[in-house]
Amino acid sequence: xxxxxxxxxxxxxxxxxxxxCTIEEMKNLGKTELEFVLVNDCSPDNRKTxxxxxxxxxxxxxxxxxxxxxxxxxxxxxxxxxxxxxxxVIISMDDDMQTNPKELVKMFAAFDEGYDVVYGYYMEKxxxxxxxxxxxxxxxxxxxxxxxxxxxxxxxxxxxRKYVRDEIIHYTGAYTYLLGLILRTTNNIKSVExxxxxxxVGSSGYTLKxxxxxxxxxxxxxxxxxxxxxxxxxxxxxxxxxxxxxxxxRKICNPSIFIGWSSIxxxxxxxxxxxxxxLGLIGEYLGRLYLKVNEQPQYVIREKRNVEGEE
Length: 311
Description:
The protein is 47% helix and 14% strand. The protein is α/β, with parallel strands linked by helices. The two termini are 13 Å apart.
């Protein structure tokens, strides 16, 4: 069976077309045993998206629908879908037709070669410059912190095997980062170039705040930022020591030299900035540990249909 997970956010005008186009394309590929897991991430649209999901579930009994009580972000919504997916192969895509089902044929061609996870990536993205920069910065950060191979380009459009799903759903933290979970499960990953289609309706649900929050979730899968801060501290301390030594020697050699207050103030503010950044980063780690101990949930399900229980 193939499970298609689609997190939904204000997608009442597009989600039915996504489902029906996906059914058609999967039939064309000879893959007819399907189920959908549609997760409404508490869309702020007066329940329009949830009503549309109910209409789809009425029409197609193999469509599972889940309504989350709070907005928890795309990655946590996907985790909710993964826990309710029964398929041997799991597919994730967006709810707006930008990850077009027509591109699945390319991804399955690679998947059938034996890869555990196949990402569809876009050379030409139909996104704003802001979103493109955010995606690029995210990829560079993951490469640096999580040792992601440079030839792996992630996206929200992917196919994975059941054993990968079975492993990553053990993660119960509130700060989910799917690529981090996948990378610590398998290295047998491939990225395939696919076409990124224009958004037909509405605009992206990602804001600057949401992108920063998603990027910060990387800290839950690496301690490298702490190492960088520590090394930066050593560097600043070394520079400060050398500078103080130079000033001291110059003063001995020429007692008439006036030591300027400006250089002292600049040094203090620079050191203070590094200190505050360090404390903030440590606080982020400690805060997440505190929330983990207190078992902050990834998501809370308000209602679900065509779902017997978590798989």
